[in-house]
Amino acid sequence: MNREIKAEQLVKRYGDDVAAVDNVSFKVDSGEIFGFLGPNGAGKSTTVAMLTTLGLPTSGRATVGGYDVVDQAAQVRRIAGVALQEIGLDPIMTSLELLTLQGRLFGMSRRDALKRANELLEIVKLADVTKRRVGKYSGGMRRRLDLAMALMHRPEILFLDEPTTGLDPASRRDIWAEVRRLNREFDMTIFLTTQYLEEADELADRIAIINRGQIQVEGQPQALKAALGSESINVTFRDSDHVRRASDEVTDMFDRLQIDRKTLRMYRNNAAEIIPAVVNRLNTAGLEPVSLTLTTPTLDDVFLQVTGQRFDTDTDGESTPAASIAEPA
Amino acid sequence: MDTVSQKTAVMPRIQVSEERMPFVLQVWSLMWRTLVTNFRVPAAVLPPIIISAFFLVIYQSSLGGAAGFIPGLRGQSYLGFILPLSVVSAALSGAGVAGQSIVRDIDNGYFDKLSLTPVSRSALLLGPMLAGAVILLLQTGVVIAMALLLGLAPETGLPGILAVLGFALLLGVGFSGFTVGIALFTGNAAATQGASFIFFPLSFLAPTFVPLALISGWLRTAAELTPITYILGAMRTILNEGWVAEPIVQGLIATSVLGLFLFAFAAAGLRARARRK
Fold it and tell me: Which CATH number characterizes residue A312's domain?
């Protein structure tokens, strides 16, 4: 059965401004978890809005489950479940009211809707607060209820727009577990946007990195990281003049160099082995690093490589230094 | 690329569920939900009733005695003449409820959630509009009850009162198209609230306090062009003169044209919102 999502040269432009989504094409296979990764304002939510019929594309086309998002919007709405970044719940209704109305609007009988609502409230651990107004819920509870709303009509394709942004680590892991379960048990196609590299790495079969409205790279997280091929030695100096001089010094030892403020990133395979040689060379040139770390490739590095800038979010990426030598003598 | 598109073409699409909610039930469910949530915050519902009732008493007390001197009103009840103004103003502020509800839903994100369900786009608009209508029926009901207490004795009796309520309903639903449209175009609570005030100039460009015949000059022209004039005229005729066909039909046409036009405006607002998203 076709549970694919396909975008062909999607463009969304607001007025005469720069396109928020600029010629984006991709295909998500049936039953796949697709991670759409990008910093704030990259165009993730705008893409989701178009795929879910909430927004109209300026040009290009997209299909969800084979249905055109503009011409067959009603069919798309029936097979897609959507949890937007902005939680969409009326604070003066109760969770049970919201879920049953949702089910009813999807054509369920009152009885079925009630049954399904209670079933979902159990799953998202809200069964004991069904009569409390949603306005009194915590952020995590609201997020879980919003997910339940998206699942109410048993969608075949699920869109989750930053489902864990602003959640504490425990709630985040709950959502991850649920996403995996939905994918495993129902073979649901899941389109997940996130600004957390770790999340995309954990959950997605395939990812696309979007920045300034354009897809920079697409592939399996493992493959993308492997494609970088190399580890990097990151040396930080006191001032940027030293960084430039250092880069001239070591240029023959590496495949690729990158300057990121006061840090010089040097890429090659098996970089760890030549750390002593690098330190030696720098010392000889009279350059004293403030710190030195070794990084194995992460999605952050993939991002850095394709965009030339660091992944700009409020989270710490996930680059964990494998070795660290401070203040070499 | 060819093989990919062929594969897609062959792959069967998901059978879209046959379960559907009938249109009337969609509108009913959405209306009911808007009503329930509005009555949970009654602060939005009560002030318009109080204001309309207040003005009715003021108009009657200050101008009621003058009715005998106003040509064309001689022998008629000033209460019957001025009540339609209070009814219209109650209807219009009741109509604001629809716009306010939608703005509230846009603010808390629930409007998007509703937009993502397969309900008819018209139901999405009509639900809150009809909820506004129910609330304005309550409001105008209170205002009319007050007028009866003040001594109103309509020419046409109870059916006349029901007809006036009917006019209020039609006008309110129509005008709620306007507030809903502004809500969708702007997504802004202050703008929507402000838009409801557009009625005030409109109602003074009509024969508000004296019959149309007594107004002259540019105001006369403006009043002749304002649909409110004909709606007021129809209600006044029903209360003070009886079932006179011409003004009543004119009133009906004015309310219907205004209503259809403003519903189209609301629908355009919904489309504009999708283009903006």
Answer: 3.30.70
Alpha-carbon span B157 to B138, nearest angstrom: 19
pLDDT of residue A190: 97
Residues A168 and A296 in one domain: no
- Fill in the amino acid letter for B60: Q
Bigger pLDDT: B237 vs B54: B237
Residue A86 region by backbone torsions, left for phi larger than 0, else alpha for psi between -120 and 50, else beta? beta
Could you tell me the CATH number of the domain that includes residue A142? 3.40.50.300
Q: Which residue from B32, B166, B26 is spatially nearest to B91, judged by alpha carbons?
A: B166
Q: Looking at beta carbons, which residues of chain B come within 8 Å of A75?
A: 16
What does DSSP assign to residue A130? Answer: T
Whether residue A250 sits in one domain with residue A210: no
Range of the structural domain that residue A112 is part of? 5-219
Q: DSSP characters for A245-312?
A: HHHHHHGGG-SEEEEETTEEEEEETTGGGGHHHHHHHHHHTT---SEEEEE---HHHHHHHHHSS---
Query: ipTM of this predicted complex?
Result: 0.81
Element holding A211 (H helix, E strand): strand A206-211
| Torsion-angle region of B187 (φ positive above 0: left; ψ -120 to 50: alpha; else: beta) | left
Among A219, A243, A275, the domain-final residue is: A219
The model's pLDDT over B22-79, given as tens digits with 9 standing for 90+, comes to 999 999 999 999 999 988 887 767 777 787 778 778 877 777 776 666 766 666 778 8
Could you say which residues from 141 to 200 on chain A have a Cβ atom under 8 Å away from some Cβ of chain B? Answer: 149, 153, 156
Distance between CA A194 and CA A199 in Å, rounded?
Answer: 7
| Residue A120 sits in the same domain as residue A50 | yes
Q: Does B121 touch chain A (CB under 8 A)?
A: no
**φ, ψ (nearest 5 deg) of residue A181:** -65, -45
Domain ranges (residues) in chain B: 25-276
How many structural domains comprise chain A? 2
- Give the pair of three-digit tokens for residue B86: 């209070």
How far apart CA A37 and CA A35 sit, in angstroms, is 6
Asked if B234 and B258 touch (Cβ cutoff 8 Å), the reply is no
Q: What is residue A195's DSSP assignment?
A: S
| Residue that terminates a domain, selected from A163, A185, A219 | A219
A306 shares a domain with A192: no
Is any Cβ of chain A less than 8 angstroms from the Cβ of B256?
no
Handedness of CA A185, A187, A193, A195 (dihedral sign): positive
Q: Does B40 touch chain A (CB under 8 A)?
A: yes
CB contact under 8 A, B17 and A153: yes
Q: Which two tokens stand for residue B53?
A: 């009732």
Tell whether A58 and A205 lie within a shared domain. Answer: yes
